[in-house]
Amino acid sequence: MKTFARRTAALVLALWPMLATASAAKDECFACHQALSDKPSALFHKDIHRQKGITCAGCHGGRADTDDMTAAMDSSAGFLGVPKGDAISRACANCHSSEERMKSLGSAVAVRQWESLQSSVHGKMVDAGGNHVVQCISCHDAHGILSTK
Fold first, then answer.
1. Global pTM?
2. Following DSSP, what letter does each residue of 18-84 receive, concatenated?
3. Domains of the chain, residue spans
4. Are the C-beta atoms of 43 and 144 separated by less than 8 Å?
5. What is the mean pLDDT of residues 5-27?
6. Which of 13, 26, 39, 127 has its CA 20 to 30 A from that of 83?
């Protein structure tokens, strides 16, 4: 009996990092949208951001830890919904302009992408509302981004 208890304890300790990561990345938004079979969740299923533990709320704001839609989409929790105009690229830049944030996710992707885009010929084009014509998602899909490895 002691051997079984020791083996069980050893197994739990060995698996603990994976279990802790899985619970830390609970994403009720994704679970609900996946049940609706919408296109973004179908693409996000294999997305590198999801694989790194980034929840829907990481880009869209709100709370990914609850299945209560009102609480999850509350503006006081920072819910943005689907970003529009320059808010699209600013959502990407929250991480992709931070070397510290990218390193914490184990990424070597170049940072300061938003600044590079803004200084390019494409990035200098603005619409009548003052929003940049070219956004990150003009070339990169917002969901379904795969690892380069």
1. 0.72
2. HHHHHHHT--HHHHHHHHTT-HHHHHHTT-HHHHTT--THHHH-S-TT-S-HHHHT-GGGT---S--
3. 86-149
4. yes
5. 48
6. 26
